Amino acid sequence: MNAMGEPYYITTAISYPNGRPHIGHAYEAIAADVIARFQRLMGRDVRFQTGTDVHGLKMLQKARELGTTPRALADEMSQYFKEMCDRLDVSYDRFIQTSEDDHHRASQAIWQAMEANGDLYLDRYEGWYSVRDEAYYAEDELVDNGQGGKVSPQGTPVEWTVEESWFFRLDKYQDRLLALYEEQPEFLQPDSRRNEIVSFVKSGLRPLSVSRTSFDWGVKVPGSDGHVMYVWVDALTNYLTGLGYPDANDPLMKYWPADLHLIGKDIVRFHAVYWPAFLMSAGIPLPRQVFGHGFLLNKGEKMSKSVGNVVDPMALADAFGVDQLRYFLLREVSFGQDGSYSPEAIAQRANADLANSFGNLAQRILSFIAKNLDGTLPAVHGHTPADEALFAALEEALQRDLPKAFGELALSQGLEAWMRAVFACNAYVDEQAPWALKKTDPERMQTVLATLYIAIAQLAVAISPVIPASAKALLDHMGVADDVRSITGMRTHWYSPLADSDFRIGAPKPLFPRIELPAEDAA
Ligand code: ME8
């Protein structure tokens, strides 16, 4: 679809598959998917990549702990990440696993480009290393752990480590990085994260240790026996691997530079400092934007028996429905900030917005059409100012406010605009009371139903990036042609192309059954 559109490349972080995916992973994958689907709806030619980051000491240690190999652990756990994406309707184009051959080639190629630019040299490294963060820290970056010891700024344990290592001249890029943040503030969003990074870079960058000799699980450093790359060097390169780098003629290279690297707030430094510096060194254009989203916290401390382990995203999807979960996560969390979830909050939001407001609207109107018009499309007998006012409200909310908000990654605001349109439709139903018109003015009744049919179809199209399966089911049920299912394709009087003349709207099944929490959860 939209093969002619402008390319748009979006990536998530690639997850460490040292365990099963948790709700934070699901959150990031869903948010990226909503953006990818939204951009497709806007006519962009989208490429969407996600996957797993299998190298590094963290994976190695976990494999040892489990008495297996890192490769076996990576293969097994990556499967769960892929299954999670499939179950949550995440429409990725490539699921990369960094043990793949093309990824080793790409990582070695970027290494050689940095080396050719004179930015890599061999030396000895001594420093505080955190296995959990896969990062070295300087003495003055460590913080008190409250028990007389020191931990990393992320609160993870550190150990003094000495090894021969390749270094990358990160310090050389300090000024260019500062100029980047200053001249292209959109490169790093939200603003609060950029401010943190600017002060970090201003405080002075040191050469970065970029190889390890104490283990061999990783991408081999070209021409340097015994060295594997620091996991972040290869991990970041995944974004290029997926486009065929270093083959400049690969057709997928049209997607570079990436439009958006969507990542969590804890790994902003790697994406907004190291990554652009590596790319500058290798002479590769920089991504347009890095966005650091917030963390999702389980504030509903209490685990629920019926939901099982509520941190398991699959269990949440089973309990509430995939679209209900997707909608909740985007509606409830102000994108960029931290958010929390609980079974009660998910049920409440899904019931209020999806079941009661939108689902009920569609249900009432379509059943009425099925029953009273034999499922045929109602005829328009001239629109009144009330109809025009509804169309104007829809246009403002769905074609102006929602796309603007989604385009700026203000996802919850986009959903607020959508709800304004739903409320406008419900108010119109109450005012126009089509059921009463059945006896008094059947022609006007048809026009009102036609107006609402158009409105419901537009609402379904606009929300389709967030609740793709439900929106598709509804649009299919309504007989809306595929080629008008786009925001740019919406017209105020979009009607006749909707369905072929033989199409009949049947009695609809409820799209969003009300979620009832067992008493133990609701308490
Ligand atoms: O950091 N809420 O992998 P990862 C929201 N392999 N997002 C969360 C979260 C939470 N509670 N917990 C984690 C890595 N995340 C590296 C990335 S990219 C080249 C390499 C986010 O499995 C986290 O911020 O620890 C990151 O964006 C993603 O999940 C994967 O985290």
TrEMBL record:
Q: Which GO terms describe its biological process?
A: methionyl-tRNA aminoacylation
Q: Name the reaction it catalyses.
A: tRNA(Met) + L-methionine + ATP = L-methionyl-tRNA(Met) + AMP + diphosphate
GO-annotated cellular components: cytoplasm
Family matches, as SUPFAM superfamilies: Anticodon-binding domain of a subclass of class I aminoacyl-tRNA synthetases (SSF47323), Nucleotidylyl transferase (SSF52374)
Q: Which domain of life is it from?
A: Bacteria
**Motif extent ('HIGH' region):** 15-25
CDD domains assigned: Anticodon_Ia_Met, MetRS_core
Which Gene Ontology molecular-function terms are recorded? ATP binding; methionine-tRNA ligase activity
Q: What is its EC number?
A: 6.1.1.10
What keywords is this UniProt entry annotated with? Aminoacyl-tRNA synthetase, ATP-binding, Cytoplasm, Ligase, Nucleotide-binding, Protein biosynthesis
Domain Methionyl-tRNA synthetase anticodon-binding, residue spans: 378-483
Domain Methionyl/Leucyl tRNA synthetase, by residue range, is 8-365
Cellular compartments annotated: Cytoplasm
Q: Which Gene3D superfamilies match?
A: 2.170.220.10, HUPs, Isoleucyl-tRNA Synthetase, Domain 1
Which positions does the motif 'KMSKS' region occupy? 302-306
Task: Extract the InterPro entries matched here.
Answer: aa-tRNA-synth_I_CS, Anticodon_Met, Met-tRNA_synth, Met-tRNA_synth_2, Methionyl/Leucyl_tRNA_Synth, MetRS_core, Rossmann-like_a/b/a_fold, tRNAsynth_Ia_anticodon-bd
Description of how the protein assembles with itself and partners: Monomer.
Q: PANTHER family per the record?
A: METHIONINE--TRNA LIGASE, MITOCHONDRIAL, METHIONYL-TRNA SYNTHETASE
Q: What does the similarity note say?
A: Belongs to the class-I aminoacyl-tRNA synthetase family. MetG type 2B subfamily.
Instruction: Report the NCBIfam families cross-referenced here.
Output: metG, PRK12267.1
- Biological role stated in the UniProt entry: Is required not only for elongation of protein synthesis but also for the initiation of all mRNA translation through initiator tRNA(fMet) aminoacylation.
Protein name (database record)? Methionine--tRNA ligase
* Organism the protein comes from: Blastomonas natatoria
